Amino acid sequence: MAQTLFDKIWDAHLVATRADGRDLIYIDRHVLHELHAPHAFKKLEQARRPVRRPDLTFSVQDHTVSTAPGRDDTTNAQSTQFLQAMREGSRRNGIRLFDIDDPEQGISHVVAPELGMVLPGATHAVPDSHACTVGGLGALAFGCGTTELEHILATQVIALKRPKRMRVRLEGRLGPHVTAKDVALRVIAQVGIAGGRGHAVEYAGAAVRQMSIESRLTLCNLSIEMGARSGFVAPDETTFAWIAGRPWAPQASQWDTALVHWRALASDDDVQFDREVLIDCGDLEPQITWGTDPSQVVGVSGRVPALASIDPAQEPTFRRALDYMGLLPGMAVAGLPVQRVFIGSCTNSRLPDLEAAAAVVRGRHVAPGVVAMVVPGSSTVKRQAEAAGLDQVFRAAGFFWGESGCSMCAGGNGDRGEPGERCVSTTNRSFEGRQGKGVRTHLVSPATAAATAIAGRIVDVRQMVTGAA
Amino acid sequence: MQPFTTLTGVAVPLLQDDINTDQITPINRDMNPDWAALLFRYARKRPDGGDDLDFPLNKPQFRNPSILVTGRNFGCGSSREGAVWAMLATGIRCIVARSFADIYRENCLQNGLLPVELKSADTEVFEARVLAADGGAPFTVDLQTQRISGPDGLDLAFEMAAADRVRLIEGLDDIGLTLKHAQDIDAWEKRIGGECPWLQTAWDPRR
């Protein structure tokens, strides 16, 4: 019978079906972070249960780490307890830790792909909803809670009900300065913030095939913002070329065997999905969120919806979002003054993201009154960017250039905005209070964020780089 | 896990859709926080720092809630389990929502917090009854009979997968259930270690 790629990976990892009907899915790579893992270590030890596969489990310090140059455990006093508990818990359980000073430290969803730790057709779990990022390599990933994390530590499996399958076909060719981030925001706008609930999403189509792996990681990262726990792209030659030679990738004869397996990882031609979505990306312009959830999206030349276009039942929600954002119905988004710009997070902090931003910034300066930050997604990305001189481009323009970590995406390390600030951000959630109490977040691509920092107001990057702005 | 059989108490209405985990519990920077104090921490306060007395959980009749009644896609966003722990710390052991975000619902089941979705035909009626009761009369959720009863109306039936229901009623240890399959896990590892050895080793050859 014809199968989706999702079903192929699921079935290959199905260990057993439990008496309560849940499937036990084996987790090939389990990556922990310091905000949630210490709770699970403690509970596991109280129950006197060992970690089943410390050799397939990895710890990363990312959520609470300071981004200040020369950081250590004590730079953020409130983070010390998390960093130390993570270090001690990892050591006691024999788990390799990418500590705050490790040359390969970074955001777990950036580190796991760049090392070749996560692979096509593999399953991956992280106690973080953006685990879905690594679907860009053709892996099946699950964000999980703390008790599920404890369960995986003890058993190396996760107990789930099989989700439905959705395919999002993205056709057309993206225009200049239109990125995977813009595509993902358009997908969320179309599917809705809850449209992916109960589904695993496969992204397909010509626009996806043309995307780099970094772009696919960005696309898959935002799957959870439409409610889908997992999102992925079938691996192809672009994927295999990207993984080849990465430090942890299979070597020698294992590589050849792996390739044979990986080339079979595709949905069958005549397979039925539970839901299909089709979007033509050919005319897409850079996108931006205007509201307090990531489905409230317009093109950068667009306007906040008019009141007349809102379903009366949704009017209170609409008004509440605009009130929080300090906007009025029908208002143009371009031209809004901003006070803060953040470039980073598991969504948009890889080398090509920083290169796209630097290309806009080069030879220009951040507008007066704007606090602008760049936080690389990993220490490896930071080193690569510095080798290419990107740090100098950003610093010369007045950006803060930080040490890698999650930083202002959720503010778990104390990097946050001030109440009432309008913040243009390359992150993934525009929720109320996400980047600090009262902070008004607009989600965009790195290029749009960079152009906005320079202009001091929301702009269409395409106009800035052609000199028409 | 604390078993869930029946629960009788005040039902507090928070009738919005898409309430996310950043609203339920803003990210906290304390390893052992006062979870109850984190529940809707921002929404409970006015801009001047005083309590917003219009926010349902701040109203005197809802100071000791047992059941939260809310809209679609409740708990979207982050996987943080604190968004469930904060409910339990406040005494809320059942959430009746029009629907739940996937990870949040799983986190509820892992902690003995009952996530209920009523039949769509019943939701408006139930929400109206909760608003009318205004904390003055209790509702009872019975997981054994899968019914909610309360003032001003008939009992309402709700669906729950038998397996999830039994796990909650008996307070079963999820890890214990899975470890009954330890031999299956061993066998899977052995087989895949042969067929796809790169999956069963995560080796850094540089070390």
Question: Can you give a write-up of this model?
Answer:
The complex is a heterodimer of chains A (469) and B (207). With 469 residues, chain A is an alpha/beta fold. Chain A has three domains: 157 residues, Aconitase, domain 3 (2-Layer Sandwich); 88 residues, Aconitase, Domain 2 (3-Layer(aba) Sandwich), CATH 3.40.1060; 179 residues, Aconitase, domain 3 (2-Layer Sandwich), CATH 3.30.499. Chain A is built from 16 helices and 19 strands. In chain A, the strands form five sheets. Chain A has a five-stranded parallel beta sheet with strand order 5-4-3-6-7, covered by helices on one side. Chain A is globular. A seven-stranded mixed beta sheet of chain B has the order 4-3-2-1-5-6-7. In chain B, strand 5 and strand 6 form a beta hairpin. The longest helix of chain B has 14 residues. At the A-B interface, helix 3, helix 5 and helix 10 of A face helix 4, helix 6, helix 7, helix 8 and helix 9 of B.
Give the SSE string of chain B.
EHHEHEHEHEEEHHHH
Largest β sheet strand count, sense and barrel closure of chain A: 5 strands, parallel
Question: Strand share of the residues of chain A?
Answer: 15-25%
Number of strands of chain A: 19
Main sheet properties of chain B: 7 strands, mixed
**Widest sheet, order of strands of chain B:** 4-3-2-1-5-6-7
Integer tally of domains of chain A: 3
Query: What best-fitting shape of chain A do the alpha-carbon axes yield?
Result: globular
Please give the alpha-carbon distance between the first and last residues of chain B.
41 Å
| pLDDT averaged residue by residue of chain B | 95
Number of helices of chain B: 9
